[in-house]
Fold:
Amino acid sequence: MTSHETACLLNAGDRDAHVTLQVFFRDREPAGPYRVVVPARRTLHLRFNDLADPEPIPRDTDYASVLESDVPIVVQHTRLDSRQAENALMTTIAFAER
Amino acid sequence: MTSHETACLLNAGDRDAHVTLQVFFRDREPAGPYRVVVPARRTLHLRFNDLADPEPIPRDTDYASVLESDVPIVVQHTRLDSRQAENALMTTIAFAER
Amino acid sequence: MTSHETACLLNAGDRDAHVTLQVFFRDREPAGPYRVVVPARRTLHLRFNDLADPEPIPRDTDYASVLESDVPIVVQHTRLDSRQAENALMTTIAFAER
Amino acid sequence: MTSHETACLLNAGDRDAHVTLQVFFRDREPAGPYRVVVPARRTLHLRFNDLADPEPIPRDTDYASVLESDVPIVVQHTRLDSRQAENALMTTIAFAER
Structure:
């Protein structure tokens, strides 16, 4: 099982959410912005390894991500790899985005 | 061990909590509302696989849930399956419900 | 390895924290209050199985807990048993206590 | 695999973050302050075992940590040892620091 990170995005509202994702690294400028749309009343399962535009996210590199949405969404971030159990956290800051 | 998701609901207050649950999917309209009551000063262990009315929740499908309560409750959501360790998060938004 | 739950309490302030703990169940009145003191600038590792006064916490029973403190503290709650990975969450409500 | 704790610090802003870390114990005064800088638009992976100045953090001892930053940062704290899965939590208090 290869490592991968995913973010589960929930848009419980009645308007589509336009989400911008930036990825931050230790030793270079951030990658992105990546853009996804979460339709109204839908979830979206985002796999970071699938991000390609404007560039793929480097493998085997620590990174952090910031998501901004034009309507309130809920983001749950999960990391899964072969050595570790998974992290789960609700990025409460997502609620504060404009 | 089959996969299952549970939510532990805590009503630490002195009035019964009437809770409404909606389940969101990637590619269809939300399911629900499901309704449960958490009595005053009690916990309730909700298994998503046990939800039947108005419809069972599909197996092997990613979903997200939103709970609303008429009094403040605490919700801890846990996912357990055979491939993954479990997720734990406290849905702090529950405190904000009316 | 037997199951156990622990709470790690951090008092980063300069006054001792007097903490009251109540434990909630599915089908009976809450147990407690249990009382512990977290000295100023100290941590305390609380094992729920060690709680004895006013009564031990039943084994093999689901429960939830609420902690109140007279000064701000941080509480991290951990559950460990032989079937599951552990849960970790920071009960942010602890910051809101008087 | 030896036990270790790490904190992933994210500075998504445009100014360097000067971070002060204090470590709290059960039975002695806190250690620190330790100081690290998280450059603008960068992440930093902090290994507690690597902290040396003003003193190393004792091994095999429970501790808790408090981080303060002069600009808003996000902190994700992870513990990994050979007996347990890992804890993940986002210390939302980090957002409240001045």
Notes: Residues 81-98 of chain D have pLDDT under 50 and may be disordered. The radius of gyration of chain D is 13 Å.
